[in-house]
Amino acid sequence: MSIDLKTIKHISKLSRISVDEKRAEKLADDMNSIFEFIEKLNELKTDDVKPLTSIAETTLKFRSDEIKSKNIREQIIKNSPEDNEDYFVVPKVIE
Amino acid sequence: MSDITKQSLTELVENIKNKKLSSTDVTKAFIQRSEKSSELNAYITEDFTSALDKAKKFDQNPNLDLKLPGIPMAVKDLFCTKNVKTTAGSKILNNFIPTYESTVTENIWNEGAVLLGKLNCDEFAMGSSNETSHFGNVQNPIDKNLVPGGSSGGSASAVAGQLTPITIGTDTGGSIRQPASFTGIVGLKPTYGSCSRYGIVAFASSLDQAGPMAQNVKDCALLQEVISTYDPKDSTSINFKRNHYSKELTKNIKGKKIGIPKEYRVDGMPQEIEDLWQKGIQYVKDCGAEPIDISLPHTSYALPTYYIVAPAEASSNLARYDGVKYGYRAKGENLIDMYEKTRSEGFGAEVQRRIMIGTYVLSSGYYDAYYLKAQKVRKLIKNDFDEVYKKVDAILTPSTPSSAFKIGEKTNDPVSMYLNDIFTVPVNLAGLPGISIPAGHDTKGYPLGLQIIGKAFDEQNILNIAFAMEEKIDFKNKITDWWIK
């Protein structure tokens, strides 16, 4: 299997990471060597193996949904790159 | 009292409790040494003024019943600390101030410790040499231009260099044990579910665990006792009976059966690692325990499995960094363009590579071939351990396939970098506890570590084995203070 530039472009779109031509080539090289290494798993027959989905086989517990932190709105907003009053600002979505 | 920074955590706690030292004395000493150690680049954020204030406050009304009374401590910059910048070693979080505290650090401050600052690490804990940090690589106190390992490289460097008496790191595939081995210190990766993940910047949630990095086993046991608590805020935190690890620590390991897995004798492993391992087996016998040859047949599949599972989880966890609510934002022509440029400029090369691997293995048409396959092999790896633990109490292996390497030596070859974690990754995949202890030096004089792997929730047992072996090994770290200004 080989990961070509078209695949890199597709993955970069899905990942929401813009990648220029030069970086795409380097990424394709790196990913091909990593996937060559990963292909080793195909040596194993696993048709009858149940996948491990959780390492700690416990049932999830419910807890009450209570607000414990008080008055942190200002601190939260302060972390945003751009804000307006109590809102986060993003580039215009609707014309 | 001279040489405060040379004292172990246990000694410092005792001296503060006996009032031979105050928290202010101790905190000042570590701040002074940290200030002379900028060449190590161990800190991302220093919080010295505030640390000294907290130490003075502690001394005014000292509660000497606490486990870490007035002890200064720097922590890996992957733990969210309320009102103190938390970057995860990334440009994308270079201005992020958490509004809450991680459970693990909260436990530490509740026992009386004071925060010295935040320690350098690989970006989002993705790396084995601390070279992927946006804030620059970290120097190993052992030698100039030597990597300290990673991802908890700043933590390892700070403990080995005596910038902090002890610290905490996180370990997803070896990020505590490998740097501990490279710097000649002790590092424990606890059982999955032992320490809360709440407030730790997430990398791969089914593998991430916080754990102590210390100068010796006793210190390590004491900090583990403090940080390991059940936490309803982490849905995978497990409510089991936790030991008083430091109080119950014993060197009596007579009759314990220690497995020696043949598959850890990998191709191309240097003779000195094999020799170290043989020495370790002899120490086990000297302690009255019994080494037993065992087989973990799927060992060689652990790294390929890890490089599917960890990037898959990372690609999902890191989807939150979009430049909207916190962190770095790039200018974009529209919303999508802003996301794409923010993530392209905000993440470093290794993080982008892993997000893209993860996205690929989870993408439509490839999920079964990669992710599902990896989950099945992960089950086989766990079954291997379950099987051998019917016969043995713990397992002894080398911590790493080599000693620390030079800065820049492996940065252009991701696969050779990944191979560093060959002995540590299976432990994370199976959710088990593992401890690395310094056990010798290679021909260059660089430290080498041995790893003891335990059964799930059996931290006490591996701490005991490490404690008994530590005495026999009698390791002395060769620190020359070459970086001190």
Tell me what the structure shows:
The complex is a heterodimer of chains A (95) and B (485). By secondary structure, chain A is mainly alpha-helical. Chain A has a domain at 5-43: Orthogonal Bundle (Histone, subunit A). Chain A is built from 3 helices and 2 strands. Chain A is flat. Chain B is of the alpha/beta class. Chain B is built from 15 helices and 11 strands. Chain B has an 8-stranded mixed beta sheet, with helices on both faces. In chain B, strands 1-3-2 form a 3-stranded mixed beta sheet. The longest helix of chain B is centred in the last third of the chain and has 21 residues, at 368-388. Chain B is globular and about 65 Å long. The interface between A and B is large, with 51 and 67 residues.
In short:
The complex is a heterodimer of chains A (95) and B (485). By secondary structure, chain A is mainly alpha-helical.
In percent, how much strand structure appears in the residues of chain B?
Answer: 5-15%
Distance between the termini of chain B: 22 Å
Ends of chain A: how far apart? 44 Å
Nearest-integer average pLDDT of chain A: 90
Major sheet of chain A: 2 strands, antiparallel
The count of β-strands of chain B is 11
Q: Tell the overall outline of chain B.
A: globular
Helices of chain A, by number, come to 3
Silhouette of chain A: flat
Question: How large a portion of the residues of chain A is in β-strands, by DSSP E?
Answer: under 5%
Q: What's the multimeric state?
A: heterodimer
CATH topology of the domain at 5-43 in chain A: Histone, subunit A
- The CATH architecture of the domain at 5-43 in chain A comes to Orthogonal Bundle
Q: What structural class do you assign from the helix and strand content of chain B?
A: alpha/beta
Strand order of the largest sheet of chain B: 4-6-5-10-11-9-7-8
Class of secondary structure makeup of chain A: mainly alpha
Main beta-sheet annotation of chain B: 8 strands, mixed
